[in-house]
C-alpha cells in the first residue's frame, strides 16, 4: 500500500486518498498524531504513519490491541465510517485497494460490494516456485468465460475483488 500511495501521489490526476492500516501487533513504525483532519472521525483517533503524514495523505490506524489514539476495531469498520460519510458524488469517484490476510480481504470486498465501489485486492498465497509451474498459489476467479483457476504468482497478485471466489 505504501508503494501504491507513493505512485498515486506522483500521478498527474487529482485524487483524495485515505490510507487505513490495521494491526494487532505493534505497528512497525513510531505512531505520531496526525495534523490532517478527518471530519468524519473522532479527533482523538489521530494516530498515523509518519511517512503518510509527510506525504500529506490522511492515514488512520485500526486495532483491537488498544494502541493509543488508534481506532478500536477492524479496518473494515473504520472504512465503513469513512465510506458512509462520503456524498454520492464522492463515492462515485472512490476505489478501494487492500492487502492483508484473506479473511480481511473478503470483508473489504464485501464492504466495497455493499457500496458498489470498485475494489482491488492483493492476494497472499503460499508460492512454492513463484514462476507459475507448480500452481500451488492458484485461486478461483470468476471470468467472462466462467470460473477459472488463476495463479497468484503470475496472474496476480492483484485481482478485482468482485471476481475472486471467496
Describe this structure in a few short sentences:
The protein is an alpha/beta fold and 166 residues long. The protein is 28% helix and 23% strand.
Characterization of the model:
By secondary structure, the chain is of the alpha/beta class. It folds into 2 domains: 94 residues, no CATH class; 72 residues, no CATH class. Helix content is 28%, strand content 23%. The strands form 4 sheets. The protein has a 3-stranded parallel β-sheet with strand order 1-4-5, with helices on one face. Helix 5 links the parallel strand 6 and strand 7. The chain is globular, with a radius of gyration of 17 Å.
Task: Give the key terms.
globular; 166 residues; alpha/beta; 2 domains; three-stranded parallel β-sheet
Amino acid at each position: 500500500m505504501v508503494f501504491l500511495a507513493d505512485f498515486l501521489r506522483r500521478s498527474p490526476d487529482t485524487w483524495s486518498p485515505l490510507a487505513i492500516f490495521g494491526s494487532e501487533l505493534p505497528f512497525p513504525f513510531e505512531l505520531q498524531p496526525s495534523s490532517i483532519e478527518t471530519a468524519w472521525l473522532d479527533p482523538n483517533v489521530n494516530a498515523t504513519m509518519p511517512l503518510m503524514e509527510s506525504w500529506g495523505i490522511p492515514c488512520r490506524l485500526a486495532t483491537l490491541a488498544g494502541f493509543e489514539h488508534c481506532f478500536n476495531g477492524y479496518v473494515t469498520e473504520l472504512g465503513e465510517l469513512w465510506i458512509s460519510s462520503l456524498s454520492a458524488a464522492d463515492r462515485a469517484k472512490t476505489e478501494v485497494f487492500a492487502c492483508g490476510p484473506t479473511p480481511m480481504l473478503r470483508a473489504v470486498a464485501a464492504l466495497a460490494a455493499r457500496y458498489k465501489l470498485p475494489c482491488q485486492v492483493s492476494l497472499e498465497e503460499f508460492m512454492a516456485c513463484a514462476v507459475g509451474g507448480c500452481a500451488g498459489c492458484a485461486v478461483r476467479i470468476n471470468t467472462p468465460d466462467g470460473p477459472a483457476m488463476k495463479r497468484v504468482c503470475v496472474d496476480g497478485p492483484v485481482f478485482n475483488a468482485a471476481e475472486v471466489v471467496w
